[in-house]
Design a protein that fits this description.
heterodimer; A: alpha+beta; Beta-Lactamase; Helix Hairpins; 4 domains; 16 helices; 60% helix; B: alpha/beta; Rossmann fold; five-stranded parallel beta sheet; 5 helices
């Protein structure tokens, strides 16, 4: 049976100390401690306290006084004990180990005292009191170190408020014994409120967080949709551009499988319907080689480009395809940033053809120039370095002169061809002219140049208006008239007439020049429009072989044609067909 | 007197060569194409032939030269090829058929005379 204690009157120091301890406890637990664990600690403490009081009432009659200080001490002790236990089991980082131990020690002592049923105060309870105060001060100091203002703030509250409230209570004559019946529920209520508020706060925080995340997600989703739309439209744009591109493009991924082929490539290798995706480099190569001409690079052409070093600029490789048609392609290879390969096959057919024609023309022209030059150079050297008899001098000089004229003519005709070519690129300058205004001046010129030939003109459609480039048409006519004179004997007749006809489904007017000259064999007729082809290469007849090719160019440029018929030994008829403006 | 056969289709070049050779003492014969040239070579048996390479007809200068040089009766005839083509491979073609000399048009008549004199040294 625990000894009964007479309720001693409240002493100031007792009250102050106890209140201080109580406030410090509250501060330490609620503000410094983790809130939830603090609440848990207080709850546990309350439960233990309630259990203790239940036990106490078994031993102590209900109307006996228990010293309030004892009660408060017990309360504080139990709470501190719970806190200490929590701290010990779940220490916060940075907390000194000795502090944890120090918290536990007096509390253990206190627990023992409570279990033994001894009530406070007793002289030997000074030790726990001092230890607890020590811990309290240490805690406050620690708090003060981290948040100086907070620590001192609470201390000052405790030092001022607690004595004031206790004195007030004492003045009011409140039976402090009864206080414990109000204090316990109040503290419990207080703890529960703080707990509830915390829980609510957490929940609100959670909901706010969820709403924020949802908003962020939907914003992200809208942005993603927009980006997808942009990518799709960009991809469409690229597809359109690449489809218009005349060249063939093949894009392979890092594993050598085709991941993009433009329509040009698909048409080239005959896969326009199924598409070429997934094709390997080797398969593409095989298809190209199947279609290549014999002198085109064989298998391995594409794989060799893939295997080549990246930093060396590879020159394009020329492929010549025969299927579906004669094509010259320049193949260029690039490695893309993600390890894939791109092959670009550029159609250079026109360029190579033009090159080839130009080379052929230059070679032939150079060759044609050498022969007259050989005479000019040779004869002049003989004249300079040897003493040549008068008669022979004259002969040599005449040859030099005539060959020089031929050279001039040749150069003029080459310039003409160039001009005609360049005029072809710009729009032909057509104007309305009467046919007789085009024809008659040229006949008059040729008549003046060749007085020994007979010229007959009979222009039935002379008043017809045609839309032609008059300068070019007159040039063509002059060439035809010159040929008529050149290839016929003096005294023979050259007849110029007009006629109507249909060529290629169109109504046309024909300018007809007929001569009575040496005529041409069918072979000669077939080659008459070749550049530099001359009907008589024996040298008796002047001319360079460019005249009729110029006539052909001019006629075709104006939408017409030139027609040649001839009987070997009898004469030739050349007709220049011009589109008739009358439908 | 040494006999020279000119085989050239362009009459003015033939005239130039003939007039050039007339300054020296050569018996001059002319042919206007490869066939005639080859025929005249067996008939006339010249000491030297001047062959234009580009001639119309069945045989061009290179063909005639090959025939001459592979015919035991005509092998001794010196052959000078005349042509407008002066690239290395044309000269090689000439060499491969056994030509003794190769002149590019336009050539200097005096150079032609020097060439002939080198090939036909006076006895």
């Amino acid at each position: 049976m625990p000894p009964e204690l007479a309720a001693s009157p409240l002493s100031g120091p007792d009250v102050a100390a106890t209140a201080l301890a109580f406030v410090a406890l509250l501060y330490a637990v609620i503000w410094r401690f983790d809130r939830e664990r603090g609440m848990l600690a207080i709850g546990v403490g309350m439960a233990v306290l309630a259990a203790f009081y239940a036990v106490e009432h078994r031993f102590v009659p209900i109307d006996s006084n228990v010293h309030p200080v004892a009660m408060l001490w017990t309360l504080a002790g139990i709470a501190f004990w719970s806190v200490g236990l929590c701290e010990f089991t779940h220490p916060r980082p940075g907390q000194a180990a000795w502090l944890r131990g120090a918290v536990l020690l007096p509390l253990l002592l206190q627990a023992l005292l409570v279990i033994a049923g001894l009530q406070m105060p007793r002289p030997w309870h000074v030790l726990p009191l001092v230890c607890s105060f020590g811990i309290l001060i240490a805690t406050l100091l620690q708090a003060g170190r981290r948040e100086p203002g907070v620590g001192f703030g609470y201390v000052s509250i405790a030092l001022v408020a607690v004595p004031a409230s206790t004195l007030t209570l004492a003045t009011l004559g409140v039976d402090t014994f009864q206080l414990r019946y109000y204090a316990m529920p109040a503290v419990i209520l207080f703890a529960l409120t703080v707990l509830a508020v915390n829980v609510l706060r957490r929940r609100i925080q959670l909901e706010v967080e969820v709403a924020r995340r949802k908003a962020a997600e939907s914003a992200l989703s809208r942005r993603a949709d927009r980006l997808v739309g942009q990518v799709a439209s960009k991809s469409d744009q690229l597809d359109t551009i690449l489809a218009l591109c005349g060249s063939a493009i093949a894009d392979f991924d890092v594993n050598g499988r085709m991941r993009y082929a433009n329509p040009g490539l698909e048409a080239l290798i005959g896969l326009a319907d199924e598409g070429a995706l997934g094709l390997s480099v080797v398969e593409l190569e095989r298809r190209l080689v199947l279609r290549s001409s014999k002198d085109s690079p064989g298998p391995g052409v594409l794989t060799s480009m893939v295997g080549a070093q990246d930093d060396i600029e590879q020159p394009p490789i020329r492929l010549t395809l025969e299927v579906p048609e004669l094509l010259a392609l320049d193949v260029v290879h690039r490695r893309s940033a993600d390890g894939g390969h791109v092959f670009f096959l550029r159609d250079v057919t026109a360029a190579t053809q033009v090159d080839r024609l130009k080379n052929e023309f230059m070679t032939t022209a150079a060759h044609e120039l050498r022969t007259p030059l050989a005479s000019v150079f040779g004869f002049t050297e003989l004249l300079l370095k040897r003493s040549v008899p008068q008669q022979k001098q004259r002969e040599m000089l005449e040859t030099v002169h005539s060959h020089s004229s031929r050279l001039i003519e040749l150069v003029n005709e080459m310039v003409d061809l160039k001009q005609i070519d360049s005029r072809r690129k710009s729009a032909p300058r057509r104007e309305a002219c009467r046919l007789r205004d085009v024809v008659l001046p040229m006949v008059a010129d040729e008549r003046a140049r060749s007085p020994n030939h007979e010229f007959l003109t009979s222009l039935a459609h002379g008043d017809q208006v045609v839309y032609v480039d008059s300068m070019l048409t007159q040039r063509a006519l002059a060439n035809v008239l010159a040929n008529a004179v050149r290839y016929s004997k003096e005294g023979s007749r050259v007849q110029v007439t007009t006629t109507m006809g249909r060529r290629q489904g169109e109504a046309m007017i024909g300018l007809v020049v007929a001569d009575q000259g040496i005529g041409m064999t069918p072979e000669q007729v077939s080659r008459i429009f070749e550049r530099f082809y001359r009907g008589d290469s024996s040298g008796h007849v002047s001319g360079n072989g460019l005249g009729m090719s110029i006539v052909k160019e001019i006629c075709e440029q104006q939408g017409g044609r030139v027609q040649v018929t001839s009987t070997h030994g009898k004469g030739t008829v050349v007709t220049l067909w011009i589109p008739s403006p009358m439908a | 007197m040494k006999r020279v056969l000119i085989v050239e289709d362009q009459p003015d070049i033939r005239k130039l060569i003939r007039m050039t050779l007339e300054f020296e003492a050569y018996e001059i014969h002319e042919a206007p194409d490869g066939d005639t040239g080859l025929r005249m070579a067996s008939e006339v048996k010249p000491d030297l032939m001047l062959l234009d390479v580009m001639m119309p007809g069945e045989l061009d200068g290179l063909d005639v030269c090959k025939h001459i040089k592979t015919d035991p009766a005509l092998q001794h005839i010196k052959v000078v090829l005349l042509t407008a083509r002066g690239q290395a491979r044309d000269r090689d073609a000439g060499q491969s058929v056994g030509a003794d000399e190769y002149l590019v048009k336009p050539f200097s008549p005096l150079q032609l005379i020097d060439t002939i004199e080198l090939l036909l040294p006076p006895e």
